[in-house]
Amino acid sequence: MKRTRSPQIFIVFCLFFTILAPLPSSSTMAKEDRSTKEDVITSTGILDGKKFVGPTGEKGKKTHHEDVLSFDDGMFSSSACIPLGFKKSPYTTRVEGDAIYFQAKTRSPTHGKIMWKGTLKGNTLDVHYNWIKKRWLWTISIEYWFKGTLVK
After folding, report:
1. Nearest-5° Cα angle at 45, 43 to 47
2. Exposed end of the chain (fewer CB within 10 Å): N or C?
3. Using one digit for the tens of pLDDT, what is the confidence trace for 104-120?
């Protein structure tokens, strides 16, 4: 008995390529994103040599203490976190218009990790950070804020 292919397979094949062919590839989409954000510059070390002093506290609460956030040689640190074993860590930046955005992740062998995200506009650094510490049966995650001014 001779096998023949049904027209349904041909229709499915045609529909498949009709739908997928017009979709841009991820590299094409990335090029389009870059072209619409011409003022975005990614850089490392752009904040080097800068220190910011200001109040910090748990999100939604008043000031807990004052901290100094420092950027040197491509590394970020918090003066209040160093005594807890948090080491300096690399930071990344991105420039959009008149704002500089930074991110960093600091780690302590005994106190977990802190994810930092901040925005520098003028001489003011606004930062939101999340302290995550894994325990035996649960994970502690607390959000904090920092608002500092450039030390000249």
Report:
1. 105
2. N
3. 999 999 999 999 999 99
The Cα-based distances of 144 to 60, 78, 81, 100 in angstroms read 8, 13, 13, 20
Secondary structure (3-state) at 107: strand
Residue 102, amino acid: F
Q: Residue 49: which of 69, 20, 26, 24 has the closest Cα?
A: 69
What DSSP character marks residue 135? Answer: -
Residue with tokens 């901290």: 67
Q: Which helix (H) or strand (E) holds 30?
A: helix 26-36
- For the chain, domain boundaries: 7-36, 40-150
Q: Can you count the helices (H) and strands (E) in the chain? A: 2, 9
Which residue type is seen at 109?
P
The string of pLDDT tens digits covering residues 41-62 is 555 678 999 999 999 999 999 9
Q: Which fold has domain 40-150?
A: Lipocalin (2.40.128)
Q: Is 133 helix (H, G, I), strand (E, B) or coil?
A: strand
